[in-house]
Amino acid sequence: MIGVRKFNSLIFFFAFFLSLGVTYAQADRDELEKRRVELRKEISRINELRISNQKKQRSVLGQVEDLNQQIKSTEDLIKLTNQQANLLTREINTNTNKIGQLRKELEKLKEDYAHMIEKSYKSKSQQSRIMFLLSSSSFLQAYKRIQYMKQYTNYRKQQGEEIKANTAELQELNSRLIKQKEQKEKLIVENRKTRAQLEENRKSQQALMTTIKKREGEFATQIRKKQNEIDEIDRAIDRMIRESIARANKESGSSTRDVYELTPAAKALAADFNNNKGKLPWPVRSGVVTMRFGKQPHPVVSSVMVNNNGVRIDTDEGGKARAVFNGTVSEVQAVKGANKAVMVRHGDYISIYNNLENVFVKKGDSVTTEQEIGEVATSKTTGKTTLHFLLYKNNQKMDPADWIYRM
């Protein structure tokens, strides 16, 4: 019976670790599915913007930028769908192997159980049991024989329960296997359609790029002019930050001008902000990053370099900007060429939400994570609703993608 207990312990630990594997696989599946749904929404949103902008006769440059973004998101969707299909393939193979193993175990259990029943039947008479007890050489031996008979009965019952459990598990695995195969087939069909759409977009992209190549000099001039306007906006924001730091320090009696003098509470807030690096929420409920941080080749005319002190996020018309962390509104200013900017202080960290049409907060207000602070403006020229989002530590620029979750 000790051997039986050891065997059952091994079965328990095997089942426990197997269940952990299933749990982690399910978590991976759920995460991939969540990301797939987000990407499909993103592609749908970009497509709607493209159609809307085509009706407004947007420039060729703008059309290509939209198309490039849609192509990138579609490529990401294809990669992710492939990951899901590969994960399902591994799970299908694992379950197929497990089903085969379970069937073998079930056959062995049934065989052992049949032998046990047969043996029990041959010696089941009450007289045989009494004789077995009476033939004991001592009271202790008789007691042990009673215990043995009880254990034997329990073991037989346990074997029957194990057969029932294995049968139920086998049926559940078979059902799961059918669903997994259906899910995989659905993903394959979806991927086929996505690839077809990707090819169509690439053909449209090539046609537009032909037009751009013919007029590259003209478009390069347009891009440089736009970059000059962006640089002017960035300089205005830099001035706003420097003046805000100097003013806050002066009010606290400090002569320091470049960095915030922090109170213990401000230090704690800054530390909390820093601890959430990579986990901060997006500054809009839904959006697509159309220009990333830093110096980079223009996404369409690569011979021209452009620079961005933050990120640009296209969102839905009427979309709201949201605070990425708890803090205090330190400035609300109109910025020439970019509507209004709201500056939120988080200790010595600063988040800036630029190109707001309507502002819902005022200087000195405390804000909480994901609180709406203003409505993002929609350009009458491009038809796009674009938030310019920036992050600083004192007057040092930081890449928002390092701080915002999955940006």
Mean pLDDT: 83
The largest sheet, given as strand count, sense and whether it forms a barrel, is:
10 strands, antiparallel
Number of strands: 12
Query: Structural class, judged by helices and strands?
Result: alpha+beta
Count of DSSP H/I helices: 6
Total domains = 2
Rg, please? Answer: 34 Å
The geometry reads as: elongated
Share of β-strand residues? 15-25%
Percent in helix: 55-70%
Distance between the termini: 59 Å
Helix and strand sequence: HHHHHHEEEEEEEEEEEE
Unreliable runs, pLDDT <50, ≥5 residues? 1-18
Write a structural description.
The protein is an alpha+beta fold. 61% of the residues lie in helices and 16% in strands. It has 6 helices and 12 strands. The strands form 2 sheets. Strands 1, 4, 5, 6, 7, 8, 9, 10, 11 and 12 form a 10-stranded antiparallel sheet that branches. It has a two-stranded antiparallel sheet with strand order 2-3. β7 (340-346) and β8 (349-359) form a beta hairpin. Mean pLDDT is 83; it is low at 1-18. One of its GO terms (molecular function) is metalloendopeptidase activity. InterPro entries: Cell_wall_metabolism_enzyme, Dup_hybrid_motif, M23ase_b-sheet_dom. Residues 22-119, 156-243 form a coiled coil. Keywords: Coiled coil, Signal.
